[in-house]
Design brief:
- This protein is of the alpha+beta class.
- The protein has a single domain, classed as Thiol Ester Dehydrase, Chain A (Roll).
- Helix content is about 20%, strand content about 40%.
- The protein has three helices and six strands.
- Strands 1, 2, 3, 4, 5 and 6 form a six-stranded antiparallel beta sheet that branches.
Length: about 130
């Protein structure tokens, strides 16, 4: 499991005073950075080998400005060429949202998915939910 602490910004709130729905996918992406590093340690986008196939966000409770949140990131499943990343947002000891992202190991030149190498699979297994 990876953990990232984020201080919600005032600009991320909506007219109702809580976090705007569009913010969580951005937070989730930021919190997936350790997963990205397994595939592209330098994070150099010219060497990037992951694509996003699907994201889901489920809102469980309101998230407010003024209190930090913790984003917990796990690996839920590992397939041949894809993985599902499971994430949770916690604020004041309340699980406020969950999300899933399906990431595909991808060969951009040939426009095809490619098998996740065993060395990366082993690293991912250490972070399974």
């Amino acid at each position: 499991m990876f953990s990232l602490s984020i201080a919600p910004r005032f600009a991320e709130t909506d007219a109702l005073g809580h976090l705007n729905n569009t913010v969580l996918p951005v937070w989730f992406e930021q919190a997936r950075t350790p997963i990205f590093k397994f595939f592209t340690p330098s994070l150099d986008v010219t060497e990037w080998v992951l694509i996003l196939a699907k994201i889901e966000v489920e809102f469980l409770a309101e998230i407010f400005y003024g209190s930090d949140v913790e984003v917990k990131t796990y690996v839920e499943t590992i397939g041949n060429s894809s993985l599902v990343v499971y994430q949770e947002v916690w604020q004041k000891e309340i699980k406020s949202a969950v999300g899933r992202a399906t990431m595909v190991h991808f060969d951009h030149e040939n426009k095809t998915s490619i098998r996740i190498p065993e060395t990366i699979r082993e690293q991912l297994r250490h972070h399974m939910v």
